[in-house]
UniProtKB/TrEMBL annotation:
Belongs to the ABC transporter superfamily. It comes from Aquamicrobium soli. Gene3D superfamilies: P-loop containing nucleotide triphosphate hydrolases (3.40.50.300). This is Amino acid ABC transporter ATP-binding protein. One of its GO terms (molecular function) is ATP binding.
Amino acid sequence: MNDSTPKSSLVHVEKLKKSFGTLTVLDGIDLDVAQGEVLAIIGPSGSGKSTLLRCINFLETPDEGRIRLAGVEIDAGRHPGQRQILELRRLAGMVFQSFNLFPHMTVLENISLAQKRVLTRSQSEADGRSMELLERVGLAAKAKEYPHRCSGGQQQRIAIARALALNPKVMLFDEPTSALDPELGLEVLSVMRELAQDGMTMIVVTHEMHFAESVSDHVMIMADGRIIEYGPSAEIMRNPQSARAQRFLNAVR
Ligand code: ADP
Ligand code: MG
């Protein structure tokens, strides 16, 4: 462990680089997220936000750099093995813009499946935990329904419950409300706000400026694969220092 890293840092990313062909998408990203902290990542489309999230749990393989998540450390340059990657991935729950629920399974089955496969929980154990989580996101009544009978906002809340079912140390959200009507987005944001209040560590790529300002502890603005601004939410949102960040915030507000 590196002495310069804050002891409380749950997620540590160091000198992360990723290119697709000749296109450099992440150009040396460093970040730390403390236990219980919410980090919002904002920035123009194409700036590398999704790629960063996907690199953190190795859905995308970084070219260079190091990631440490709750004690599991991976150096991308050293060709990490599959076992190490799976270990890292289990610590991070991911929620995407598209909910990706299995259409042929009930809501309950959607949430129980990975618990049985990954955590080898029994059916009844898994279902018990799934019901707890459905209560938490306000959807216990939907347990026996199929996903297509649920609204987009409900499906996204189910996807959140499914990610939580594996007891992740950190939740990664990639624009979880951008496919939803504003009203349905609000119910998802409210579940996320409660999660944050309960102390979940979260990294949230979002275009919801109000969420970034009011829920997150820190805000990071990306442009062209770099961090152009980082700091306490209120400060960054109200007083961005760089002209590039000011331009971006003016355009989206
Ligand atoms: P953001 O989420 O900020 O909109 P992305 O991380 O999705 O940005 O994409 C950053 C850049 O990388 C874009 O130019 C995008 O086209 C490119 N990119 C992302 N994924 C791939 C891929 N799998 N192959 C090639 N280019 C990609
Ligand atoms: Mg994206």
